[in-house]
Amino acid sequence: MASVVALCLCGRLSRVCCVIRTVTLTLDPDEPDPEKIERAADVIRAGRLVAFPTETVYGLGADALNERAVRRIFEAKERPADNPLIVHVADRKMLSRVSANVSAEAERLIGRFWPGPLTLVLPRGPEVAPSVSAGLATVAVRMPRNVVALQLLGRADRPIAAPSANASGRPSPTTARHVLEDLTGRIDLVLDAGPTSIGIESTVLDMTGEAAAILRPGWVTREALSDVIGPINLALSEDRLKRSPGTRHRHYSPRARVVLVEKGSERDIRRICEELLTQGPVGFVGHTAVEIQAPAFTRVLIGNDAGEYGRAIYSALRLLDQKAPVAIVVEGVDDVGEGEAIMDRLRRAASA
């Protein structure tokens, strides 16, 4: 067990008003220690914050039925209050506490993709804390495919609201170390069960309109969803997009400027990097082996495969950011299948 003592922010984010001892508990991802899970569940039931792994990224969890606890998430992350949270459930009984109105289409999707990286936007149940949904009548909910997450939900015996466990706007955390980089001293407990298996956030599908619409691409692809319930489009209206996290505010961004090269040869990428090097240090992450002999140039190579890219991209952005570059040049992947989710995140990071 490791722990760190640091100052936290609560109430008004600009005012230091308490001290939190952030404790880290290390677990076996397949057979987590029941006593450590119970300890984390106690923290959730007490209205405090626990960071825990899912198959996508690490989440920052609080009791979704406790308004005061949910507000602590927004305070710890410095998250805009109009950015809703995803609620995690362990089973169908717990889902009934979050939404009492699950359509037949949603039932088919649940049967096919839960537990897994699919979030459904449904009508919000009366027990859910209003801040979870940013005051909207909808709620985003999913069942994670992760042993630690499911055991925590089961022992806590309540739905857990959990956005990514990072400072708002930063690259999402795929390891406990990333969580501690951003939130040490602001949260109570971190469950460290190693790196996440997917590394990209869940697909968010709105089921509350006349037709289902993807609000945020994720690891469950549009094609896979269409196979179950028919054709699906990407949502474009502000009214629908505001029902999901990760669609309107700054997200997934390192401190350095991100320059995205969606299509380009090794020569093109090298030219861009060399031009930026005239301004200062430059980082590069991608699948093309760019050769530049300069002390101020750092590269991270990832295989040209959506699965490998998804698992590595946030960690690579954080690693390169530590070099304080003037820019990080990122090479894109094919914008199809799971690559659609990766490119969505990279475009948002670059636009910020």
Topology:
Elements: E1 2-9, E2 16-26, H1 34-45, E3 50-53, E4 58-63, H2 67-77, E5 86-88, H3 92-98, H4 104-113, E6 118-123, E7 138-142, H5 147-156, E8 160-161, H6 176-183, E9 189-192, E10 203-206, E11 213-216, H7 222-229, E12 233-234, H8 238-241, E13 257-261, H9 266-277, E14 282-286, E15 297-301, H10 306-321, E16 327-331, H11 339-351
Helix pairs in contact: 1-5
Would you mind describing this structure in some detail?
Helices cover 32% and strands 22% of the residues. The chain is an alpha/beta fold. It folds into two domains: 2-241, DHBP synthase (Alpha-Beta Complex), CATH 3.90.870; 257-351, 3-Layer(aba) Sandwich (Rossmann fold), CATH 3.40.50.11030. The strands form two sheets. Strands 1-2-9-3-4-8-5-7-6-10-11-12 form a twelve-stranded mixed beta sheet, sandwiched between helices. The chain has a four-stranded parallel beta sheet with strand order 13-16-14-15, with helices on both faces. Helix 7 links the parallel strand 11 and strand 12 (233-234). Helix 1 crosses helix 5 (147-156). Mean pLDDT is 91; it is low at 1-17.
In short:
This protein is α/β, with parallel strands linked by helices. The chain contains eleven helices and 16 strands.
Largest sheet: 12 strands, mixed
Order of helices and strands: EEHEEHEHHEEHEHEEEHEHEHEEHEH
Beta-sheet strand percentage?
A: 15-25%
Beta-strand segment tally: 16
Given helix and strand content, the structural type is alpha/beta
> Could you say what the CATH architecture of the largest domain is?
Alpha-Beta Complex
CATH evolutionary superfamily of the largest domain: DHBP synthase
Q: Mean of residue pLDDT?
A: 91
CATH topology of the largest domain: DHBP synthase
Q: Please bin the fraction of helical residues.
A: 25-40%
How many separate domains?
2
What is the helix tally?
A: 11
